[in-house]
Amino acid sequence: MMASTSAPPPYSQSQAWPFIEAQRLLASCAHKPPQKGFVAFATGYGPSGLPHIGTFGEVLRTTMVQHAFSHISSLKTTLYTFSDDMDALRSVPDNVPQPDLLQKHLGMPLTSIPDPYDQYDSFGAHNNAMLRRFLDSFGFQYDFQSATDNYKRGVYDKTLLTVLEHHEAICALVRPTLGPERRKTYSPFLPICPQRGVVLQARVIETHPAQGTLIYHHPIDDKPIETPVTQGHCKLQWKADWAMRWSARDIDYEMAGKDLSESVTLSAKIARVLGKTPPLSFIYELFLDEQGEKISKSKGNGLSIEEWLDDAPKESLAYFMYQHPKRAKRLYRALVARTVDAYLHELDAFNEQEPQQRLDNPVWHIHRGEPPAPFSRPDFTMLANLASASGADDPQILWSFIQKFEPKAAPHKDALLDTLVAKALHYAQHRLNADKTYDTPTATERTALQALKEKIENTDSQQDTEALTKTLQAHVYQTAHDCDIPMKQWFSRLYRLLLGQESGPRLGSFVALYGLGKSVQLIDEALKR
After folding, report:
1. Among candidates 156, 210, 211, which has minimal Cα distance to 188?
2. What are the pLDDT digits (tens) for 412-426?
């Protein structure tokens, strides 16, 4: 029985985009509950290169909609994660080993090409494993689907025969979108060469729906060949393939990047030709690298999944993905720390919010409605700068700073803080330390540094944490005022003079945590330059 379309508050009132999408999907299902007994969500992955961060973003965002849907409907759901691993390798990615090995297998399905990493049965299997490993680490529940497996096991056979039956109608839809030469030879079917195993861009001469075969002109052997369209003897051009798997699996919801918006429209038309209703779609904006270029699997530009997770907890990556999915965003290393701190800010805010506000907080969606319990934590930028300034290479060094003001804090009590400590150490050692450039103070700055040093030395260190932090922050402000240095300039220069970087933590909090004596030493080192 179909669930009511009116969900109880506060879910129905949430303005968070996953809930808005879930409401759209429920409305589209309300008139005809799926005969298969569940609502099917889908994501697609082209494993021609290493999985990149955008691939993960699509799966994460889809699961957020799926989770929101589960709160407004009693319908069961399934998430299919499709890998188009029967696609031909058209070019060698820039960021993989043994490029000569791949060069020898151009044109073959990805699952028929040796793994250049020598770890799996094929290049496609290697890249599929990388995607699944990461998705598993996030605890996603999904049904992984290999195109190669579905084609060869006959899962798509019934729909492929329907494509064959409507061959000319599909050609009529697609050909106007192609260039003049490709238009002449287009067919949705790509035969697999029985001798070479290559995916062929071949001209189809005849179709025989009753027999389930077609005859194509072999572009290499220069002769006509008849082949079944089922059991993996052919695959489909990707736009027809997309519509085919929608139809074969009765998909209800799938996202796509803005660069594929026209393809979504065309594939939806093909699905209707096949007698199926296309899924509800959500078009998200693309990620860009630091130069504003689109992130590419083959180029390996932007940040990789591994690079982000080396530097920051996975929750911060989920936070980045949640924010403004319809807005193009740059993805580069410098924003990692800021993103972690923004996530921590929302986590702190969650515990003070009313139920309705919580539904609109990103952390509700990141943690499937159950964010971790509140705990007093320094922010990530602070931890990284403490690690960098102290030269820490052991988590216990950072814990000693934390426990100075939070004696009860311990790794076993706060798993998130334990993760933040480990990631901050890595971030400091591999990012902050590598980029440090200390400036030499000007005469005015020397006077100001000396004055700040004296204020710190005369500060009562026995104050409680909050009072000490306020006192030290006031010293920083007062020094700038007394030495007639613009406040914004003073903070920027202090980061350069004391920490060797463009930006940094709130200085009063940093000095309090790092220690008055150690902070004085930083000033002395700056004065010696």
Report:
1. 156
2. 888 899 999 999 999
